[in-house]
Amino acid sequence: MVTIRPATPDDSQGLVELRTALQRHDEASNPRIWRNTEEGNRNLEADVDKMLSDEDGLVLVVEDGGDLVGFAYGRVVSRRDYLPETVGFINLIYVREGHRRKGTGIRLVRELCSFFRARDVDEVNLNHIKGNTEGESFWTKLGFEVVRVTANTPLEALEKRLAELQ
Protein backbone atom coordinates (compact mmCIF):
# COMPACT_ATOMS: atom_id res chain seq x y z
CA MET A 1 0.00 0.00 0.00
CA VAL A 2 1.30 3.46 -0.93
CA THR A 3 1.48 5.96 1.91
CA ILE A 4 2.58 9.57 2.05
CA ARG A 5 4.05 10.88 5.26
CA PRO A 6 6.39 13.57 6.56
CA ALA A 7 10.02 12.56 6.15
CA THR A 8 12.20 11.79 9.15
CA PRO A 9 15.99 11.75 9.53
CA ASP A 10 15.82 7.97 9.06
CA ASP A 11 14.75 8.66 5.46
CA SER A 12 17.95 10.58 4.64
CA GLN A 13 19.67 7.91 2.55
CA GLY A 14 16.50 7.14 0.59
CA LEU A 15 16.00 10.86 -0.04
CA VAL A 16 19.56 11.19 -1.34
CA GLU A 17 18.85 8.32 -3.76
CA LEU A 18 15.57 9.92 -4.90
CA ARG A 19 17.24 13.32 -5.28
CA THR A 20 19.92 11.68 -7.45
CA ALA A 21 17.24 9.96 -9.54
CA LEU A 22 15.47 13.31 -10.03
CA GLN A 23 18.73 14.89 -11.21
CA ARG A 24 19.25 12.08 -13.73
CA HIS A 25 15.65 12.42 -14.94
CA ASP A 26 16.10 16.18 -15.39
CA GLU A 27 19.39 15.72 -17.24
CA ALA A 28 17.74 13.23 -19.59
CA SER A 29 14.94 15.74 -20.21
CA ASN A 30 17.30 18.59 -21.02
CA PRO A 31 21.06 18.10 -21.42
CA ARG A 32 21.66 21.86 -20.98
CA ILE A 33 20.72 21.98 -17.30
CA TRP A 34 23.30 22.38 -14.59
CA ARG A 35 24.87 19.12 -13.46
CA ASN A 36 26.14 18.07 -10.07
CA THR A 37 29.90 18.00 -9.66
CA GLU A 38 31.53 15.29 -7.55
CA GLU A 39 31.51 17.78 -4.68
CA GLY A 40 27.82 18.44 -5.31
CA ASN A 41 27.12 14.70 -5.15
CA ARG A 42 29.05 14.47 -1.88
CA ASN A 43 26.98 17.36 -0.48
CA LEU A 44 23.60 15.79 -1.27
CA GLU A 45 23.33 14.24 2.18
CA ALA A 46 23.97 17.62 3.82
CA ASP A 47 21.41 19.21 1.46
CA VAL A 48 18.83 16.60 2.48
CA ASP A 49 19.62 17.20 6.17
CA LYS A 50 19.09 20.94 5.58
CA MET A 51 15.71 20.27 3.98
CA LEU A 52 14.67 18.01 6.85
CA SER A 53 15.58 20.64 9.46
CA ASP A 54 14.00 23.56 7.58
CA GLU A 55 11.41 25.10 9.92
CA ASP A 56 9.75 26.83 6.96
CA GLY A 57 9.69 23.67 4.85
CA LEU A 58 8.05 20.28 4.63
CA VAL A 59 9.56 17.13 3.16
CA LEU A 60 7.14 14.37 2.30
CA VAL A 61 8.01 10.82 1.27
CA VAL A 62 6.04 8.26 -0.68
CA GLU A 63 6.44 4.78 0.71
CA ASP A 64 5.39 1.55 -0.97
CA GLY A 65 6.00 -1.68 0.92
CA GLY A 66 8.73 -0.07 3.00
CA ASP A 67 10.55 1.39 -0.03
CA LEU A 68 10.73 5.12 -0.71
CA VAL A 69 9.42 5.69 -4.24
CA GLY A 70 8.90 9.44 -4.24
CA PHE A 71 9.24 12.69 -2.35
CA ALA A 72 8.32 16.35 -2.34
CA TYR A 73 9.84 19.38 -0.66
CA GLY A 74 7.90 22.59 -0.22
CA ARG A 75 8.88 25.77 1.53
CA VAL A 76 7.16 28.97 2.67
CA VAL A 77 8.79 32.37 2.17
CA SER A 78 7.48 35.60 3.66
CA ARG A 79 8.69 38.96 2.46
CA ARG A 80 7.53 42.56 2.68
CA ASP A 81 9.10 43.98 -0.47
CA TYR A 82 6.86 42.12 -2.96
CA LEU A 83 3.25 41.09 -3.28
CA PRO A 84 2.11 38.50 -2.57
CA GLU A 85 3.92 38.62 0.75
CA THR A 86 3.65 34.92 1.62
CA VAL A 87 4.56 32.46 -1.10
CA GLY A 88 4.80 28.69 -1.13
CA PHE A 89 7.48 27.11 -3.27
CA ILE A 90 7.34 23.56 -4.50
CA ASN A 91 11.10 23.14 -4.62
CA LEU A 92 11.38 19.47 -5.52
CA ILE A 93 9.01 16.66 -6.41
CA TYR A 94 9.80 13.25 -7.85
CA VAL A 95 8.03 9.92 -8.18
CA ARG A 96 9.85 6.85 -9.52
CA GLU A 97 8.75 5.76 -12.98
CA GLY A 98 6.81 2.63 -12.00
CA HIS A 99 4.71 4.67 -9.57
CA ARG A 100 3.71 7.55 -11.85
CA ARG A 101 0.25 8.20 -13.29
CA LYS A 102 -1.41 6.69 -10.23
CA GLY A 103 -2.34 9.94 -8.48
CA THR A 104 0.76 10.02 -6.29
CA GLY A 105 1.97 13.40 -7.58
CA ILE A 106 -1.47 14.90 -7.03
CA ARG A 107 -1.51 13.52 -3.48
CA LEU A 108 1.92 15.05 -2.80
CA VAL A 109 0.81 18.45 -4.10
CA ARG A 110 -2.42 18.22 -2.08
CA GLU A 111 -0.38 17.62 1.11
CA LEU A 112 1.90 20.55 0.29
CA CYS A 113 -1.19 22.72 -0.24
CA SER A 114 -2.42 21.83 3.25
CA PHE A 115 0.96 22.85 4.62
CA PHE A 116 0.84 26.11 2.64
CA ARG A 117 -2.76 26.87 3.68
CA ALA A 118 -1.85 26.45 7.36
CA ARG A 119 0.83 29.13 6.86
CA ASP A 120 -1.42 31.62 5.02
CA VAL A 121 0.31 31.26 1.66
CA ASP A 122 -1.21 33.44 -1.08
CA GLU A 123 0.49 31.93 -4.13
CA VAL A 124 2.42 28.78 -5.04
CA ASN A 125 5.49 28.89 -7.30
CA LEU A 126 7.77 26.29 -8.80
CA ASN A 127 10.44 25.75 -11.41
CA HIS A 128 10.56 22.82 -13.78
CA ILE A 129 12.95 21.73 -16.47
CA LYS A 130 12.08 22.67 -20.04
CA GLY A 131 11.89 19.43 -21.97
CA ASN A 132 10.52 17.43 -19.04
CA THR A 133 7.25 16.80 -20.87
CA GLU A 134 5.78 14.78 -18.00
CA GLY A 135 6.43 17.60 -15.56
CA GLU A 136 5.27 20.30 -17.95
CA SER A 137 2.00 18.45 -18.56
CA PHE A 138 1.47 17.76 -14.85
CA TRP A 139 1.99 21.37 -13.78
CA THR A 140 -0.11 22.78 -16.63
CA LYS A 141 -2.95 20.43 -15.66
CA LEU A 142 -2.77 21.89 -12.13
CA GLY A 143 -3.07 25.45 -13.49
CA PHE A 144 0.53 26.65 -13.30
CA GLU A 145 1.46 29.21 -15.95
CA VAL A 146 4.90 30.40 -16.99
CA VAL A 147 5.46 33.97 -15.76
CA ARG A 148 9.23 34.07 -15.78
CA VAL A 149 11.77 32.42 -18.06
CA THR A 150 15.37 31.54 -17.28
CA ALA A 151 17.63 31.24 -20.31
CA ASN A 152 21.33 30.43 -20.58
CA THR A 153 24.18 30.28 -23.06
CA PRO A 154 27.89 29.58 -22.69
CA LEU A 155 29.92 32.79 -22.22
CA GLU A 156 32.15 31.96 -25.17
CA ALA A 157 29.14 31.58 -27.48
CA LEU A 158 27.66 34.87 -26.26
CA GLU A 159 30.92 36.72 -26.80
CA LYS A 160 31.20 35.28 -30.32
CA ARG A 161 27.69 36.47 -31.18
CA LEU A 162 28.41 39.90 -29.71
CA ALA A 163 31.56 40.18 -31.82
CA GLU A 164 29.56 39.28 -34.93
CA LEU A 165 27.13 42.13 -34.20
CA GLN A 166 29.82 44.85 -34.18
Question: Describe it for me?
Answer:
- This protein is an alpha+beta fold and 166 residues long.
- It has a single domain (2-164), classed as Gcn5-related N-acetyltransferase (GNAT) (Aminopeptidase, 3-Layer(aba) Sandwich).
- The chain has six helices and five strands, in the order E-H-H-H-E-E-E-H-E-H-H.
- The chain has helices at residues 12-29, 38-42, 44-52, 104-118, 133-141, 155-164; strands at 2-6, 57-64, 67-78, 86-95, 123-126.
- A five-stranded mixed beta sheet has the order 1-2-3-4-5, with helices on both faces.
- Helix 1 (12-29) crosses helix 3 (44-52).
Give a quick rundown of the structure:
The protein contains six helices and five strands. It is of the alpha+beta class and 166 residues long.
Choose one word for the global shape: globular
Structural class: alpha+beta
Query: How many strand segments?
Result: 5
Tell me roughly what share of residues is in helical segments: 25-40%
Assigned CATH superfamily: Gcn5-related N-acetyltransferase (GNAT)
CATH class: Alpha Beta
- Estimate the mean pLDDT confidence: 94
| Total DSSP helices | 6
- First-to-last CA distance: 64 Å
